[in-house]
Amino acid sequence: MVGTVISVLFAIAIGYVILRIGFSIFRLLATPLPEPPPAGELRKVKLNFRCSSCGSEVRMTVATDESPDPPRHCMSEMDLVIEDE
Ligand SMILES: [Zn+2]
After folding, report:
1. How far is the CA of 62 from the centre of ligand 1 (A)?
2. Distance, CA 26 to ligand 1 centroid (Å)?
3. What is d(CA 46, CA 9) in angstroms, rounded to the nearest whole number?
4. Range with the lowest mean pLDDT among 49-53, 68-72, 79-83?
């Protein structure tokens, strides 16, 4: 009987430890991203980027400056698409 109580307590302790580890991993993943700069410091841009590996295109509409770093896709930087309008 005492053995059962001990194993139950042991199981609870193990469960608690696993829960704590899970929460610490979750907290690590949920690390807040750096605060975006105030709206006044952002520039409205209209840039298209194309992934040279798979051909996906994205449009950037707001950036921290007029020539922001290209986003990444397929592990490489995307190419700026010059569009005529
Ligand atoms: Zn891609």
Report:
1. 21
2. 28
3. 61
4. 79-83
